[in-house]
Amino acid sequence: MARYIFVRALDSIPTIFLVLTLVFIAMRILPGDPAIAVLGENARPETIALFRERFGLNDPIWLQYLHFLRDVVTLDFGTSLMKGVPVGDLILRNIPYTIELTIAAMIIGISGGIPLGVWAAINRNKAPDNGFRVFSLIGYAVPDFYLGAMLLIIFALNLGWFPITGAGVEFTDRLHHIVLPAVTLAMLKIAFLGRLSRTSLLEVMGRDYVRTARAKGAREPRVIYRHGLRNALLPLSTGLGLSVLTTLSGSVAVELVFNRPGIGRLLIDAISERDYPVIQAGVIVFAAAVVIVNLLMEIVYVVVDPRIKVK
Amino acid sequence: MSAVEKIELPKEPSAVGNLVKAILLKPAGLISAVVVLIFAFIAIFAPVLAPYDPLAQSFLSVNALPSAAHWLGTDQFGRDVLSRLIYGSRNSLIIGFLSPVFAALIGTTLGVLAGYFGGIIDRVVTRLIDMLMAFPELLLAILIAAALGGGFWNVVVVLTVAFTPGFARVARASTLSVKEEPYVEAAVAAGVRTPLIIIRHVVPNIAAPVVVLLTLWTASSIRLEATLSFLGIGTQPPAASWGNIIREGLSNIFATSWPILSAGLVITIVVMAISIIGDSMRDILDPEIN
Q: All domains of chain A, ordered by start, with CATH?
């Protein structure tokens, strides 16, 4: 087990390395001189020279690359060009909001999606199943930022049930602020996890052990949850990992809709302000999240299905 | 009477037969195709159909509600929302269609080469696919766009990169199974040159899953373009796209919600229609999957 995790962790190092290299290259091949991009066309030559010196833009490219790697490894992301504060502080300040939004959306998505999928599977080709199919079709098609904007217009702006912007301060206030964005993100999850649990349950329900359980006289709920759903967990656990990642990427737009702080919001604002150190750090944080979630998923696999062995 | 009687062969289900059956069974696919054609028509004839110049501002009619003059009202600059939607369909649909097509060309080429030749090409391509596939398409698109910035061709590049690994994976897997088929073996034995085998025998036989994927991802692509434009890293204003109409609508949400309402509805309808077409195509081209 420990060996498996270790091997998998080692395996993700090239991915991290590739991502970092791509980020470095992308930030360097950007059209135009970053110094001019930041300081403006009319900046004095001395200012530009000073800027280039300060950010090491005069160094040879390989040295810049080494410095870049060193900074990432030591988690030194530099200083925000616009806000003048260390980028690391900005990240730390914003990350809890994105994490709490992702967790809230996952909770709603799981507790809505799995029962719905089970319900649809039990009533295969009947009204609940067809209803769910229409729901998931729409759930997949509606862009989350549109859904968010509609919820905002209806429930915050017109009905006044929820706050319009921000993330709140203490617990109940934060809970109040998180409802609409979390429901927005959860909608796609409900469609996705519902569809997944429906198909994987249907597949399992035809197996011999389910028939045996029924023959033994086990009650239907017990057959479904104990014998059916438990064995459908493996595909579901894959889906959950994927779902965390899509929630994370969806949070970027949703944070913008609800004017919430968060990593996505930080990245998008930095892009529009051309705040390069923040863009760079934001990209790295998201990439790191992907690698970590994938690694956790691999571990969950082994826990759920001990047959998987290290190659 | 001839000595040899004509033997009645069991008819193989033809593609056309499947098509007719699929349409009769599930008219949703046909209806969706009509919907998409209507939108394509609107995009092509935008200059004729749009009642106003999509960029013309009028400070006399700012944030107007829907009326006979402006069917969907106007935005904060007094621009006609309907005209912006109509012109926006051009950016949204062209980028939406172009990117998956480019991705299909590049991805399929990579996948076929990796699957057919194996060895070092295969290892490099598989490794790249695995790395890129770890990222959800939207996140990959956002991350690349963060570095590249917005604009028409940048968005096309971003979405192409985001979709390429998926095509490569499907093409590689299909090629691996087609390679073992007797007709490929026969072609090799007959001394047919490798490029010809790939073009004549491999590509046509892996086309079905690629085409299905292409359709399904056109839907994703349109949604992704809208998302990027909404985030300000897609189609750049003042040019209209369905996503940035919602972006501008959001900053004006206290005055009017018509731009958000209408643009979002249009995105949803088109994305839904194309996914339904994709599902029907899978039923027709790949009947075994069901």
A: 87-304 (1.10.3720.10)
Top CATH class, B18-34+41-46+71-285: mainly alpha
Regarding an ipTM greater than 0.90, the answer is no
Structure confidence by residue, pLDDT tens digits, B28-39: 888 898 999 999
Residue spans of the domains in chain B: they are 18-34+41-46+71-285
Q: Is B253 in Cβ contact with A157 (below 8 Å)?
A: yes
Q: How many CB pairs under 8 A join A and B?
A: 119
CA distance linking residue B148 with residue A30, whole number of Å: 7
Residues 6+ apart with CB under 8 A from B253: A149, A152, A153, A157, B260
Tokens (6 digits) for A85: 């504060």
Q: Is the pLDDT of residue B2 over 70?
A: no
Taking the CA of residue B40 and the nearest CA in chain A, the distance in Å comes to 18
Asked if the Cβ–Cβ distance from A30 to B147 is below 8 Å, we say: yes
Residue B158, amino acid: V
Q: Which residue has the tokens 């899509």?
A: A246
Of B232, B250, B264, the CB nearest to A268: B232
